Amino acid sequence: MPTILDVASIKRDFPIFDEKMRGGRRLVFLDSGATSQKPIAVLDAERDFYSRRNAAVHRGSYFLAEEASAAFEGARQIVANFLEVRSDEVIFTKSATESLNALAVSFERTKGVLNIGPGDEIVVSELEHHANLLPWQQLAKRTGAVLKWFGMNPDGSLDLSSIGSIITPRCKVVAITHQSNVLGSVPDLAPIIAAAHAVGAVVVLDGCQSVPHQPVSVEDLDVDFLVFSGHKALGPTGIGILWGRYELLEQMEPFLYGGSMIETVTMTDSTWAAVPKRFEAGVPNMAQAVGLAAGLTYLKGVGLANIHQHEMELTKKTLDGLLSIDGVKVIGPQDTKNRGGVISFTIDQLHPHDVGQVLDQYGVAVRTGHHCAWPLIRKLGLMGTTRASFYLYNDDSDVDVLLESVVAARDYFRKR
Amino acid sequence: MPTILDVASIKRDFPIFDEKMRGGRRLVFLDSGATSQKPIAVLDAERDFYSRRNAAVHRGSYFLAEEASAAFEGARQIVANFLEVRSDEVIFTKSATESLNALAVSFERTKGVLNIGPGDEIVVSELEHHANLLPWQQLAKRTGAVLKWFGMNPDGSLDLSSIGSIITPRCKVVAITHQSNVLGSVPDLAPIIAAAHAVGAVVVLDGCQSVPHQPVSVEDLDVDFLVFSGHKALGPTGIGILWGRYELLEQMEPFLYGGSMIETVTMTDSTWAAVPKRFEAGVPNMAQAVGLAAGLTYLKGVGLANIHQHEMELTKKTLDGLLSIDGVKVIGPQDTKNRGGVISFTIDQLHPHDVGQVLDQYGVAVRTGHHCAWPLIRKLGLMGTTRASFYLYNDDSDVDVLLESVVAARDYFRKR
Amino acid sequence: MDLDSLYQDVILDHYKNPHHKGEPSGEFKVHHVNPSCGDEITLSVTLTAGQVSDVTWNGVGCSISQASASIMSDLVVGRTSQDAFAILDEFTSLMQSKGTLVGNEEVLEDAIALSGVSKFPARVKCALLGWMAFKDAAIQNGAKA
Amino acid sequence: MDLDSLYQDVILDHYKNPHHKGEPSGEFKVHHVNPSCGDEITLSVTLTAGQVSDVTWNGVGCSISQASASIMSDLVVGRTSQDAFAILDEFTSLMQSKGTLVGNEEVLEDAIALSGVSKFPARVKCALLGWMAFKDAAIQNGAKA
Ligand SMILES: Cc1ncc(COP(=O)(O)O)c(C=O)c1O
Ligand SMILES: Cc1ncc(COP(=O)(O)O)c(C=O)c1O
Fold first, then answer.
1. Which CATH class is domain C3-140?
2. Burial of A47 by CB count in 10 Å (0-12 exposed, 13-18 middle, 19+ buried)?
3. Which of B66, B70, B262 sits opposite C35 (nearest CB)?
């Protein structure tokens, strides 16, 4: 099958594909939904920072400190360009998880319209990753706010039939995923976002599974906050992004307190620096910011639309293959409509752990279990799924090995 | 002057020393109090992780995920050995700043004896870095607790004369620095810790300036929590450590909510995983943990006691030099008693920024300003200081260049 | 293929026909989960005069966790709690050995079949789930660890 | 040595003998800080019929920030607020130019002496401190940006 990407040459940029798995097998990495592999460009960018420009940013006026600050703020600009937003709206966190917790805690601390207190309503969905459920669930418990959610249909879409009773004038925040990390399904966001804005609520989009894989425009989507994780976007571990509209960020209280986020400090009182510094306490994850910028630059070079098209081709082939294997069930969307390159499936009555173990013998790296979305798995009445997820470095032959190993897993336990 | 360390060979392990500063000068890096430089061993450890073992830890059962988990948990064990504590007492955060905020927020959320609420007292000191002042100051504001502090004497020691009225039976937490990041002074901790424990308070030690530079025993110090930052200890940016006694951590509520820190989750309720996972939500900073372990291993190889002795020799030479330059004032301890390798000074009426600018022309990297400890600077009636801080890669010739450049700075502005 | 050393026939037999599985009815009932995969077990222990007179468990999980709970139940029922804990210690060491130990067949009997698990670190927790639940329930029941 | 291009005589003169420095007494008084070094300025502007009739400032800071505030005050007093803002824009561009612009001496007069600052990114904020305070105070005073 011809594809839009030159995967052979892309693979050469990722040193991990030189490694041998169990039994000397090559790596068939189908777990990019959990974390992505890293191109040399990212490794080099980090190393270059440490070897040539390392100093604490924003704090020194010597040469190296200037270099470090330029590298760090340059990285911020690259992220901003990638998202097509203002650079002072881009906040470096340690992960999407931190970004989401930061929002929840900031809303708790902020006075005024953004404050979340008793009786206020927070809306999520049954699709959410724990990272976009628990911070809100616990915020509701702490403050007396009410957590509400959109239910999920068996095909992985959201039930919007009672949208009017879910998003009410008491709603302050709607926090929702752009794409399910379990099923790959993409919820119909437009009516939800419109309803949220109609009642004056802000919309937080969990872009962990979308931003690294396709063009995403906060402008077109009309969301107010966006989060994603660097490590799923070719970047280093230990870095995430929180983007928010400046007018909102400006009103918000800090999440972490410490150096570099202050304006003035006495023993008893403090005032805060302007956005985005207000939200970046301490010596920041400088090298990781620089590494993430290199990762996003690499993605842009390949082209996000190309990556998306490529992944959808692999997804189609995989769906066709899985659906034709007796005993295999695809969970969630059965075709390529309204989904991304993440596919969950089950085999016979097999536990996903046992499935994954056989796949591992083929060098196939997939995720098994509840994928940090336990409510979704419960709703489906499952013990878990096996999940394959694609990225720009996967190709047809990866799909072939996956399908071969799925048949082998089924047969291994059937025959015994 | 003979020294205990072979600095020439150490310097070769740090690629940054090959870089040229302004005017082609070599780097005289005297800002390790802000951040340390990185040896090749650390750069290689991170690269090796990304190139050979990268996968999401604790979540996959495939080969790479096992390798990643082994690397990450192996790093935890190395940190634990370094601190001589149990490995399940070691929590990876993004920075010392996050570690301290995590404690403050966890105490706020935790029910029972560790809870901090109205009327409870929190004790800090005037020596604190903003990172160990603001989280407590703001916690007090949020909860109605009372923030109290030990005042600082002009020599950088703490005024313990009214210890009995500062640490009272209402005290819940004493959070204090092991060494001032501005003056290098080491407060007399023993009476403070004894007084805290006598009233049942827990003691949080900010080890940012001590742990990377000398042997530190939480056992001997008898503290309950210890924090430090990886990037000041040869490690990568984006990683910090929070150590706590298991019996305390076990009682504490999480700080961040998300994947991997849960036991069970429904839409409305969740329970938490055991310590330390409870405090590590999301895909963690895996590569940074591995890098930090390599940094601590390097430090152990050189020997912490040797590093301390080396730094104190450089400190003595620098103090002698500075004190003999007309117009220069050393701020804080005037000799090597009760201090580490951090020296603040002023020149004539010059603003530290102007001093730093001249030093920069000599390739000398120092920090100028309030060093994120504004209350301390105000207490001294200064606009800021110039600060030189040492590490294992500094040598006598670095001190010589510093002293030469200090004289040049004085003369540059004096003669005009 | 390594797989056969992991999935020995004994294991699949116990998986298909687990022993002591049923509604746990004893007084001291515990519920353990393996949060990384969602496997759950509920287990109760009855101690009579220092002896494990009954173990009943229920739950969902992979073949390893189910078989291991089944084998464990067979092993501990009828023993003193000290003896049961000794077996548990032996089994835990074997699991954590990363394939370096072979295990004492005298003590572990059918559980020897699980020795292959120790080469797959991610599965060790599956094998230990039932054993940890047993230990917890027995201690709550008054047994000394 | 680059240093002389940064610390030109004009700058040190203004530093030693700052103009318009005193207790700010105008109605619209602002307080700005440079949080990374702790430099502070308090500044008030008086506008009379759209013209900057007075600027008074006080504060602590490095030679660059003090000289720049002094030079700025000289430049804006007696101008319309539009003209003052135009100078400010010119000056800001020069500061952010990383040494690539020379600056228009007609417009900037003494402030041209600060052009060397643009080569030292960490000092740009020092040079802009007074100017930003002026802008803020003038806008609060009713001047249009
Ligand atoms: C004494 C002290 N505490 C806390 C911190 C904060 O560390 P970080 O910025 O790495 O979080 C620092 C360093 O900046 C410090 O020197
Ligand atoms: C949809 C979604 N949201 C949030 C997260 C949390 O990301 P991280 O663990 O990198 O913080 C993930 C990934 O684990 C995810 O897939």
1. alpha beta
2. buried
3. B262
